[in-house]
Design goal:
By secondary structure, the chain is of the alpha/beta class. About 25% of the residues lie in helices and about 25% in strands. Bound molecules: flavin-adenine dinucleotide. InterPro entries: Amino_oxidase (IPR002937), FAD/NAD-bd_sf (IPR036188), Flavin_monoamine_oxidase (IPR050281), TAT_signal (IPR006311).
Length: about 375
Amino acid sequence: MGLKVSRRSFIKTGVVATVSGMLWRDAARVLPIQTAQAASSPKQTKSADVIVVGAGISGLAAADALRKNGYSVIVLEARDRIGGRIWTEYEGGTPTELGASWLHGIHYGSPAPFLAQTYALGKADPAKGLDYTYRDWLSQLDIRQNQIVHGVSHDDNGVRIATYSDVFNAKYAVITLPLGVLKSGSVAFSPELPLRKQEAIDRLDTGLMNKLYLHFPHVFWEQDADTIRLESPSGDAQEYVNLHKFTGQPVLLASFTAQAAAELEKWSDEQITEHAMAALVRQYGDSIPHPTASKSTRWASDPFARGSYSYHSAVTSGEDMRILGESVNNRLFFAGEATNPDNCASVHGAYLTGLREAQKIMGIA
Ligand SMILES: Cc1cc2nc3c(=O)[nH]c(=O)nc-3n(C[C@H](O)[C@H](O)[C@H](O)COP(=O)(O)OP(=O)(O)OC[C@H]3O[C@@H](n4cnc5c(N)ncnc54)[C@H](O)[C@@H]3O)c2cc1C
């Protein structure tokens, strides 16, 4: 397996800040998607002005903006945690970011305001976590977890969203399903999505990044290095971010992209750790300690992500992302990183699409 750290996080704007601890402390338990046939008959109906599908950053941004402007909003989230592709786990008290790590964009002309404010107020602390900052904000939203949406229908009177336990009615819906989920067809739309949108979904594609965190009892590598480049016994290059330098904790982080990331998903956790340890032992000797904990991600296999983020490929253009973000019948509004042609694949890009769609709804009602 060819292993390498993606430099993406570091080169986009320069490192701005980690999202350590951002919003979400709960570990994810990914629920199996049931087949449409297995869907039991709905037990209850709920109503709101707007249903937001997905409690990632785009959905939360849309819900918050709408709520503040007097709309009743229900957010439906498939997982038993919120945050989507921002996913912080606290291993031994150390925040480890299993999805996004770095916040970009605060040096751009129009950064996500909540990020800018947070940093201007000096509230960000990589070792503490930003969930502290946003707990109040989240407590005001009506977020229903473990609600796997499998059907979205709409007509001139409103929208109807079916999960495996309930049916929700609303005037409008903001759909923030990740591109990979839209591509999988696991959510049925009635009437079907317009052909031009479906063709854009087919053309667009998702990239893959997986992470491996290794927690050690103490640091045995170069303490001041940003990254450490190693070679495994089989000749693979591996590059680790030295998180000790940023958090003070003895933790190494490797990120795998593309084919290496896909390969990783076929391996057991033990195999992945063993592979990483072989390279570390080769470099630092066999007296180094075994990790006290390790964690690796499998974003492609995750039924509620089906990939890490969208990207511009040779056969797609920003136009496809723009089409993906087009509303349908002034009832369905589409947000999420893949609908942002200028800032796809990012936290701030996703956030801005949530605000964009909330504005659209406010413009018509
Ligand atoms: C490994 C990795 C590293 C990254 N690194 C960075 C980084 O350093 N900096 C950066 O800016 N960005 C980074 N990103 C990208 C960033 O995380 C995403 O662009 C952003 O979080 C996407 O937000 P979103 O709201 O569009 O989607 P999501 O966060 O995916 O939200 C969509 C929500 O919909 C839910 N959902 C899915 N299916 C259903 C269903 N059927 N019913 C109900 N709910 C459903 C999901 O569970 C999820 O909560 C990274 C992503 C990954 C995976």
